[in-house]
Design brief:
The complex is a heterodimer.
Chain A lengths: L3 H20 L2 H18 L4 H22 L11 H5 L8 H13 L3 H11 L4 H8 L3 H23 L9
Helix pairs in contact in A: 1-2, 1-3, 2-3, 5-8, 6-7, 6-8, 7-8
Chain B lengths: L5 H8 L5 H13 L1 H22 L11 H11 L4 H21 L52 H9 L9 H5 L3 H6 L6 H7 L7 E3 L10 E3 L14 E3 L1 H8 L4 E2 L4 E7 L7 E8 L2 E9 L7 H7 L3 E4 L2 E6 L4 H9 L2 E2 L2
Antiparallel strand pairs in B: 1-2, 3-5, 4-10, 5-6, 6-7, 7-9, 8-9
Helix pairs in contact in B: 1-3, 2-3, 6-9
The chains are: A mainly alpha, B alpha+beta.
Chain lengths: 167, 338
């Protein structure tokens, strides 16, 4: 069994990041990450890190469903693009940037997105394979596709284009 | 070896190609300009994707001690955990909201002894210190009780009533302190606000107030009530240049929102508030001050993180008549104003 304290130290920021890109709410992501670790303390899983990401992904899914139901005040924060274009080039609103990345991520298939987020959270191909059910040999291809689509979707969004290649 | 597929190139770039395959690939790359070019393309793509993801990351905050999670592990298994965590955050916000206002320039909280109505001046409350001899009708409150152990329910009781009472003025301080004496001076039976706070709707409660209002102005806003901010109204409006010089850097706010005003706090710790309009009926307030002036206690920082942030060298807190969720989202977007 892994040393949870060690895993906690090394993995907490990555887990928060991973969750953040699913729930898009920093505090929520932290809450969920802490919840995942709290559960790990109770369950003492064999492979803590992988287990944490599985649990976190499930919680994020539930969270997303709940958030969809409770979508109230939060839409007010999607600032109108017009207002943002008046901002000087070198001060592109961080939120707008984030919104664009989020929109681009939404263009990925769930599996591609999951693989990409897991990789970005520091998971190895083996861990990603275990988590997603993909063959290890397919991870490289999956990530290549995910990256390409992310970049393409982002660029398409930048140009204001509505059409993003899907395949 | 035919040309290498992109999946293999990405696995190679990711350092995840088994060593035997890696050797073969490198051998091939040495001879194949097409694949070398492809590798360069994929490398650029990989970096670009990574940078994009990197631009969509949360503000990194330190993890709470694992012990804390361990202690609450059982409790957290309850499905109500998320709710309660919000209640907790709101409680802290209440305490901090009040605590924030109470700092004297030295970072000390004014002692309750200074809070009897007759001693409260319109502008110097935040700078008064505990009198050496407590007034006859009040006993001093133990210092250990200050701020570190705010009993939150006391806050709404008095804040909620503040606007309808002639006395006590500036009772924010008294309200934030779990002092029997304070409540004697300002008897406050359960008010509606307090009752509501006892319910599960804590998440939307935000307290704000000013350090030294001429009249009691602190208010409790519940669940997005469309009440205009009233606090800090007595703070002097200043221009941006003065705000900058008080802070020692550009004030922060949400760049996409219009700035209504900059106001200066009555203390000498450089606190200002930037008021920005979410829409014509909703104004949020972004309190900010040089971080060095208070909140040095690590535990307090950690708790403060729910509704406050450090941005550069500024401690920033936010208030407004929107939900706690929204405030947090807004807070994430705060940055130096263009």
């Amino acid at each position: 069994m892994d040393d949870i304290a060690e895993v906690y130290r090394n993995t907490y920021p990555a887990l928060v990041r991973f969750l953040y890109r699913k729930v898009w709410d920093a505090e929520r992501a932290e809450d969920l990450a802490q919840e995942a670790f709290a559960r790990a303390l109770v369950h003492r899983p064999e492979k803590t890190r992988g287990w944490l990401f599985v649990v976190a992904a499930n919680m994020a899914r539930d969270e997303a469903r709940r958030a969809a139901r409770e979508k109230r005040h939060l839409t007010l924060l999607k600032s109108e693009p017009d207002a943002v274009h008046t901002v000087p080039e070198d001060q592109i609103d961080a939120d707008t940037q984030q919104t664009r990345v989020r929109a681009a991520l939404d263009q990925l298939t769930p599996r591609d997105r999951e693989a990409l987020l897991l990789w970005d959270a520091g998971m190895s191909y083996d861990e990603i394979a275990a988590q997603t059910g993909l063959a290890r040999g397919a991870i490289g291809t999956t990530l290549a596709r995910a990256r390409r689509r992310l970049v393409e979707a982002y660029d398409a969004g930048q140009e204001g284009g509505q059409h993003v290649a899907r395949g | 070896m035919s040309h290498v597929d992109e999946g293999t190139l990405h696995a190679y770039l990711d350092g995840e190609l088994p060593s035997s395959e890696r050797a073969a690939l490198e051998e091939h790359l040495a001879q194949c300009t097409t694949c070398r070019a492809a590798l360069a393309d994929e490398r650029a793509l990989r970096e670009r994707a990574s940078a994009l993801l990197g631009s969509a990351r949360p503000i990194e905050r330190s993890a709470p001690p694992l012990e804390q999670l361990r202690r609450s592990a059982q409790a957290r298994r309850s499905p109500w955990y998320v709710r309660r965590s919000f209640a907790w955050a709101a409680s802290i916000a209440l305490a901090l909201g009040a605590g924030y206002l109470l700092r004297s320039p030295t970072g000390e909280v004014a002692a309750p002894g200074s809070q009897q109505p007759s001693s409260v001046g319109p502008t110097i409350v935040a700078t008064t210190r505990a009198p050496t001899a407590p007034p006859p009708e009040q006993k001093p409150t133990a210092p250990a009780q200050r701020r570190t152990t705010p009993r939150v329910p006391r806050v709404p009781a008095e804040l909620g009533r503040a606007s309808e009472k002639a006395a006590p003025p500036a009772d924010v301080v008294a309200a934030a302190l779990p002092s029997r004496e304070a409540s004697n001076a300002a008897p406050a039976p359960d008010s509606v606000a307090q009752q509501r706070l006892k319910d599960t709707r804590l998440e939307a409660v935000v307290v704000r107030g000013s350090a030294a209002p001429a009249r009691p102005e602190a208010s409790v806003f519940v669940d997005g009530a469309t009440v205009q901010p009233v606090t800090a109204k007595s703070w002097a409006v200043i221009d941006r240049r003065l705000a900058k010089s008080l802070l020692g850097q550009e004030p922060v706010g949400i760049p996409a929102l219009a700035v209504r005003s900059f106001r200066r706090g009555p203390g000498r710790d450089g606190t200002i508030v930037v008021e920005q309009a979410l829409d014509s009926a909703t104004v949020i307030q972004i309190f900010q001050r040089p971080a060095s002036t208070s909140l040095n206690d690590a535990a307090e920082r950690q708790r403060a993180d729910h509704f406050g942030r450090f941005i550069g060298r500024l401690r920033v807190e936010i208030a407004g008549p929107v939900s706690a969720d929204s405030l947090n989202r807004l807070l994430e977007q705060v940055e130096p104003l263009p």
